[in-house]
């Protein structure tokens, strides 16, 4: 039951925390469901008809247009969109990203417990938590932008109330559809790379910033030496 006590941490009491990357990849595969659902929602909003046609009301007008096409008349209503489910899922995704950053919050995450359980019989790959925190911070930014798109009036009211001026409109969505549509595909690609290929772009960016000296970090590899494995190799030779 150590997987339940420690979740995906090698040792929660370590000064520099390491997590099981196998469990991280399993969790990324589970969380991939959220951006996929958002992609379907955005496709429906951006690329399908905003009109609902009452087929029983369609009648032939016995007229044609300039292209010699028959003109019909009918009753149509404009679709309205309710993003309550999407907003709830995005807030849950935001919670999951935040939960993975600390030991005590990780115990509140269902996906961390489930992914750790699924990885219990697989060989653990210990990687430092700090680069993952940086990557998840980028994910938090993307999720926040999606929340603003789905709730533009709420965000506009907060901004306008904070600054005491009408800086953002509250009667229409000021974020163009192409922005979240492209953003959600970026999220899907990054999570797919993490889950399937084990490639974490945020971690690579973090490493680049450390190499450039912008971020000061210790040598994590020095803290990740498997002395037991080294001892076993010497015993074999």
Automatic annotation (TrEMBL):
Domain of life from the UniProt record: Bacteria
Residue ranges of the TM segments: 28-47, 83-104, 133-150, 177-202
Domain DUF4395: start-end pairs: 42-209
Signal peptide region: none
Keywords on record: Membrane, Transmembrane, Transmembrane helix
InterPro entries the UniProt entry points to: DUF4395
Name the UniProt record assigns to this protein: DUF4395 domain-containing protein
Native species: Hydrogenovibrio marinus
């Amino acid at each position: 039951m150590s997987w339940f006590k420690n979740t995906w941490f090698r040792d929660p009491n370590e000064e520099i925390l390491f997590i099981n990357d196998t469990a991280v990849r399993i969790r990324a595969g589970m969380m991939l469901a959220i951006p996929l659902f958002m992609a379907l929602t955005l496709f429906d909003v951006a690329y399908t008809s905003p009109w609902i046609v009452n087929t029983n009301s369609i009648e032939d007008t016995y007229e044609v247009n300039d292209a010699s096409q028959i003109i019909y008349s009918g009753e149509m209503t404009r679709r309205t969109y309710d993003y309550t489910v999407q907003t709830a899922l995005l807030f849950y995704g935001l919670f999951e990203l935040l939960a993975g950053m600390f030991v005590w919050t990780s115990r509140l995450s269902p996906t961390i417990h489930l992914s750790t359980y699924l990885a219990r019989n697989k060989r653990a790959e210990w990687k430092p938590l700090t680069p993952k925190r940086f990557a998840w911070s980028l994910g938090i930014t993307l999720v926040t932008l999606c929340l603003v798109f789905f709730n533009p009036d709420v965000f506009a009211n907060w901004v306008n109330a904070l600054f005491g001026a009408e800086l953002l409109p509250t009667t229409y969505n000021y974020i163009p559809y192409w922005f979240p549509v492209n953003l959600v595909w970026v999220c899907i690609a990054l999570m797919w790379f993490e889950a399937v290929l084990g490639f974490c772009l945020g971690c690579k960016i973090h490493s680049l910033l450390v190499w450039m000296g912008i971020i000061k970090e210790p040598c994590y590899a020095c803290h990740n030496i498997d002395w037991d494995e080294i001892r076993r190799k010497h015993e074999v030779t």
